[in-house]
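S.,

Sequence below, as promised.
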Amino acid sequence: MNPALDRGQCDADNTRMNAESITCPYCNARVEWTASLKVGQRTTCVRCGESFVLTQLPEPPTTPPALTASLPSGRRPKPVKANRWVAAGILGMMLVMAGTGLTYALLTVETRREHDKALPRKSRRPWQTELPPPADQAVPLSALTGLGYLPNTTGLIVALQVQELLASPTGKELRSRSFRIANSDFQLDNLKELVGIGVEELDHLVLGVTVRDDEEAELTPPTQLIVRTIKPLDKRRIQVALKASREREDRSASGGKRTIYSASLRGVPATLWFADERTVVLGLFGQFELVPTTPNEGTSALRVELRNALDQRVPPGATGWIVGHARDWKKTWLPTLTAQLNEVPLLTRIGEIQTFSLGLMPTSPAKVLGSFRCIDEAQATKIEQEELLPRAKTSSLKYSRDGTWLDVQWTLDGR
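The prediction came back faster than expected:
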């Protein structure tokens, strides 16, 4: 160590600090003296970047003789950087605080999660929080293979995820019940006799019905039933059950070729097509050429209103659901079908609704969640006051309104 160098550097620092200095009027940073500085000259602050005019010049620093004698020629003393120690102290404190905070956060994860459960996020449909979470193995609604075979003229879709439903208490009850259809009793186990496929073989069913806007009501609209099985189909057994005959070649609207059969479903003429080894398509009331030869990707070919209802309104975990859209349901066949369904909220007022969805939740007792988009907000308010409010006072029905949408929940235990 050179004592003369140390003493010289300290004296130089003191001399520099005692000299009159120029500071930035914006951030008070000291402007270093240079020989090129002149009064009236505009200079730029190296800290904040602002420019200002020099009104005076600082006195140039002088180098003490001891420093001059001890330093190599042409070398200036290096000033002490005291701010480095301050910055290092602040940075060290920040690192300690960050480490302490991270440690605390990791040690209290479980406690904070418990607090999250105790303070649930507010929902526009709070009654849906009562429902159990969907099963992990359930297929997303829009991923059902059968939806890809529906033509783009479809306005109403009914779907059933059979295995998920049968595994629930609701499915077991439905399997043991009889349903009155066309003046005859029907059970799910009768399906094998009806179409040649047992209920335990089914993966899912999709029913699509054509809805034409701005036309007179059709009592027999074109309809497609898509049946998807777990294992490869027994084609011969299905042909026998459906009285299939007259094999012939058919061309779809896209130009694809396929082999179809004339068949009969409970006396109603039908078209039978084995789409692949696990998928069979039945067409009723014509226009089978609109069914695509190659299934569309998910719901991409469906009307946007149906896609939105399926993605946003059918509750996750629903094992059976219905979505529908029409500009004016009064010009379709649906009001005739729903006229006697007084127990289902809002379906008797389908003429005042454009888009709707119904989802079956396999709870015990089973619950149905419905969403109905009215023609306008005034109509939604009117239906709420005239139908939903009186029902909610005398039954388990719950509802909420969000603009033109009415969301409803009710149980299927007769209350």
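The first helix runs from residue 3 to 18.

Coffee later?
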